[in-house]
Write a structure and sequence with these properties.
about 200 residues; alpha/beta; seven-stranded mixed sheet
């Protein structure tokens, strides 16, 4: 996996040989980070189902102040730790945990500050997007105006109760940039028209 922008641009990181692990394509990541550029510097970022860490490490490379990578699989989590050490990424931390359990416990229990950017890229076909979004709200994990990026199967509808700020479909994946606050101003247009 390659980091495509920021301080660690062009750095290659090993990926754990875990079945079903799929890093986001470079083009999808480039579009996403163009969307996030106005809010990413100094952001607090949560990457649940971190997998390869592609989104979280990219966010750190591009100026996020703090990034928490959450991954349940022990092999993937060990690789995230190794990549964290190889980069010397002081602003990144890795937590081996089940995402739904962690989120269900609530932010205050974990002692975390609210997050301004959240990546939700779960394994496909498991129906995890809706429960994770609900847990983010119920556990008070989101700062006001937080952006939540969801990557899901392309045939699924957008989550109810969220404002879709940007959208992109490529292959079997559909990427949605969401905000809970309906009054949120969409990020400036970057990387082409949405959709």
């Amino acid at each position: 996996m390659r980091i495509i922008g920021g301080d660690w641009r062009r750095r290659w990181l090993p990926v754990a040989p875990v079945p079903g692990l799929r890093p986001s394509a470079d083009a999808q990541r480039e579009t996403l980070f163009n969307w996030l550029q106005p809010v990413l510097p100094r952001a607090a970022v949560l990457d649940v189902f971190a997998g390869t860490g592609a989104l979280g490490f990219e966010a750190a490379s591009r100026g996020a102040a703090a990034v928490l990578l959450v991954e349940r699989d022990p092999l993937a989590a060990r690789q995230l730790e190794a990549n964290h050490a190889a980069l010397g990424a002081e602003q990144v931390s890795v937590r081996r945990a089940d995402a739904l359990r962690l989120l269900g416990a609530g932010r205050r229990v974990s002692g975390q500050d609210p997050f301004t950017v959240v990546f939700v890229d779960p394994p496909f076909g498991k129906g995890l997007v809706a429960p994770v979004l609900q847990a983010l709200l119920a556990g008070d994990w989101l700062a006001p105006g937080a952006r939540v990026y969801v990557e899901q199967e392309s045939g699924l509808p957008a989550p109810e109760g969220w404002t879709v700020l940007r959208e992109r479909t490529g292959g079997q994946a559909r990427g949605l940039l969401l905000c809970r606050d309906a009054a949120a101003t969409p990020a400036p247009e970057a990387g082409g028209a949405p959709g």
